Amino acid sequence: MAFLNSSRFLRLSLTAKVFTRFSSSNPRNGLVLGVYTDADNNGVQMTPCAQKYNECSNGKLMEQIRLAGNEVKAGKTFVFWGLDNEFQSVAVVGLGKKCEESDDLELICREKEAVRVAASAGCRALDAAGVKNIQVENFSDPESAAEGSLLGTWKFQEYKTKKEAPPQIALFDPQERTACAWQRGVAKADAQNLARRLADTPANLLTPTIFAQRIQELLAPLGVAVTVRDHKWAEQQRMGAFLSVSRGSTEPPKFVELALDRGGEGQAPYVLVGKGVTFDSGGISLKPSAGMDEMRADMGGAASVVGTIFGLAQLGTPANLRVLLPLTENMPSGCATKPGDVVTARDGKTICVDNTDAEGRLILADALCYSAEFKPEWVLDVATLTGAMRVALGNAATGVFSTSDRLYAALQSAGSVTGDRVWRMPLWRHYTKQVADHPAYDLNNVGKGKGGGSCTAAAFLREFAPPHTPWLHLDIAGVMGPQDDTVYLHKGMTGRPTRTLIEFVEGQVRGG
C-alpha cells in the first residue's frame, strides 16, 4: 500500500469493487486461475482462489483438469468452458513448483516472475479465444499479477486502421489489501506500456517538438512541471556537444525539464537523464540501411524515464525528482557535424567527434553537466548507447556503470523484484585513458583501443557527471527491443527498464 494516498486508494478500491463481477448476461466473461505443480510432480495443487472456485463449482474445475491429463506445466494454459453461468470460460495456468530452490546467480525473484508469466499466459489465451472481459485471481501476489496481465495483453497498434479491441482486465474477488497491490501493479505496467508506445512511435510522428508536446499532455495533469527549452536556450547554456548532434537535421532540438516535488522541503532531488535521439541515422557516419528503422527507438532512454516519472506520479511517491531530456535527431546533411570536428561541451571541455554515430554520449554530456545545477542526491542516466552492450549481455539485462556500490546494490535488488535485471560493468581508469589521452583536445567521443565500446562510452560520460555526486549510467541498447524473449511482452520495443527504475526510486524514498 506504500505511497498510495488515502483518497486515491479509496477511488481505486471502489473502482476495483465495481469490477468484482461482470454481468452474467455477457457471454464473453472469463476468469484466470492458477495451479502449482505438485511437489512430487504428481498432479496439481490449486491456489487458494482456484480452490475456492472449485468448491463453488462443485468440483467441476478439478474434474476438467484431470480429464486434461492432470498436468499443467509452468506458463501453460488450459481453457475450460461452461463450468458456471457467470464465467463462460476459465483459463487455468501453471505456476510451476510452489517452493522452488532459490538461485542467487539468477538475480531474479522466481515467484514474482512466475506470477507475471502465468497471468500473462492466462489473459492471452482468453483474449485469443475472443473473451474480452477478464478477471484475474491474485496468485498471492496481486501486484505481479497485474503487471503480467497488462504487459502481456498490450500491443502497439496505434496506426492500424482496424485495431484489435484490448481485453478489459480486473482483479477477481478484490479485498482492500489485494486491490491496493493490484492497482500498484496496474500503475507500473501502464508506465512501461507508455514507454513502449513512445519508443515504437515512428520518427516522423515523434519529432523532438512532438515528443515535448506529448510529454506536456501526459504529465502536466499529474502535477508534473514541464519546461521545454529551445535551441536559443541551449546556446545560452553553451551546450555545444548537444547542439552539434542536432546540426544535420531540419527538426529543431528541444531540452525538456520535468519536476516532481513531493518530498520534504529542502530535500536534494534525484535526477534522471534520458537519451532522446528521436531518430538516429548515424549522421555523416551513416548506419547501414538494414535495421535502421529501429533507430526510431534511440530515444528509449527518454521514453523509460518519462514512463518512470509517469508511474511515480500515479503512485503518489513522495520524492523530489528532476528528469532531463535532451531531444534531437541525428541526421546527415551539408550542415551536419563531420568526423574530426571539435566541439565544446557546457563545462568547457573540448571533444573531437571522430564518429558522428557515437552521438548519444554527446547529448548526455551536456545534460549531465546541467544536472549539477540541482545539487542532486544522485544522478542516473539511461541510454540506448552502444551496440557493444547488446553483444555483451544480449537482452538478458541492462548494463550498469556506477560510482556508488550502495546505489548499484539497490538497483540490482530492484531488478530482482521486477524481473528486469541489471548487471554491473567496469568503470576503470583504463577506459578513461582511451578517450582522454590526446594532445590536441580533451576527449574523443570514441575510444582508441579495440573492444570495450560500452566501457569507453561510460568512461566518457563519467567526465561530465557532477563531481562528488553518486552517478549511475544504464546502457539499455540490448534490452530496447524489438526482439526480446521476455514471454509476457509482445514483439516490439520493450519499455525496459521502466519498472525497475520505479522500484529503485521507491526504494530510495524508503531509505533503501
From TrEMBL:
One of its GO terms (molecular function) is manganese ion binding. PROSITE patterns: CYTOSOL_AP. Residues 355-362 form the Cytosol aminopeptidase domain. It is an enzyme of class 3 (hydrolase). This is Cytosol aminopeptidase. It catalyses: Release of an N-terminal amino acid, Xaa-|-Yaa-, in which Xaa is preferably Leu, but may be other amino acids including Pro although not Arg or Lys, and Yaa may be Pro. Amino acid amides and methyl esters are also readily hydrolyzed, but rates on arylamides are exceedingly low; an S-substituted L-cysteinylglycine + H2O = an S-substituted L-cysteine + glycine; S-benzyl-L-cysteinylglycine + H2O = S-benzyl-L-cysteine + glycine; L-cysteinylglycine + H2O = L-cysteine + glycine. The keyword Hydrolase applies. Its EC number is 3.4.11.1, 3.4.11.5, 3.4.13.23. It comes from Phaedon cochleariae. Belongs to the peptidase M17 family. It holds the Pfam family Peptidase_M17_N. One of its GO terms (biological process) is proteolysis. InterPro entries: Leucine_aapep/pepB (IPR011356), Macro_dom-like (IPR043472), Peptidase_M17_C (IPR000819), Peptidase_M17_leu_NH2_pept (IPR023042), Peptidase_M17_N (IPR008283). One of its GO terms (cellular component) is cytoplasm. Cytosolic metallopeptidase that catalyzes the removal of unsubstituted N-terminal hydrophobic amino acids from various peptides. The presence of Zn(2+) ions is essential for the peptidase activity, and the association with other cofactors can modulate the substrate spectificity of the enzyme. For instance, in the presence of Mn(2+), it displays a specific Cys-Gly hydrolyzing activity of Cys-Gly-S-conjugates. Involved in the metabolism of glutathione and in the degradation of glutathione S-conjugates, which may play a role in the control of the cell redox status. Keywords: Aminopeptidase, Hydrolase, Protease.
